[in-house]
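Reading a protein record of the kind used here takes little practice once its layout is understood. An example of such a record is reproduced below.
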Amino acid sequence: MTTVTVGDLIRRRRDLARRSQMDLAHEIGISPRHLSFVELGKSKPSPQVITAIARHLDLPLRERNDWLLAAGYAPHFPETPLTDPALSGIRASLQTLLNAHDPFPGAAIDGQWNVRLTNEAGRRLISGIPEEVRGMPTNLFRTALHPDGLARRTRNFSPWSAHLLRRLDRAVVRTQDTVLAALADEIATWPDIPDRRGWSRLSPDGADDPVLSWQVEIDGAELSLFTMMGTFGTPMDVTLSELSVELFFPADEATETALRRRAKRS
């Protein structure tokens, strides 16, 4: 088997970003010749050079660690499990945010779009969907796009799935995550999912509203929801850098009333 060097990784990422050696080298303050030698494996870059290149290419923290390891250096960024006591304060704050958002659904998700924290409204939203459909832990892409998941309840599946598939495609390209890539390949085999090669060009059409809403039927009521995403502003830990919060809001008064009534019944 051929060993992948840090130079190979840098060149692949630079090509994906469509950056020339000259422009990138000048940005980080090294000569184009040195960057060329690094990519060819003729020169070993320092940790500072690796970090600078990764930062200018906007690499995820996990991949920056991978580059350092490939060059023979120790990883720079820690990866602390969300359940670790060191993150108990952050975990509690996230749960407080999600609970305060109830009776509207909300979840904290990791880089593979697995649900790590949620509120009661989020649990109510996916109630009745088998574990083998939504995954363990629950994965938002699987749950939303699987024919036995929320796909069958989604009334505007074409534009909503276009939004999700483009988001998934961008996540695969940005992170180069093999698990996400495998999930994308699996989803491409499901009914009503367009060809995998065209996901990057998908665009929700026919939407006149300021934001695309998700039209979904739950317990006989048709809900209209839009979402907002939030991330940590200055993460220095791999886990936190990959964590985001997605909050669902009612797009109309009827949806808000239905969600509040559903919460009271529960």
Q: What stands out?
A: The CA atoms of residues 2 and 8 lie 11 Å apart. The chain has a mean pLDDT of 94. The chain has 13 helices and five strands.
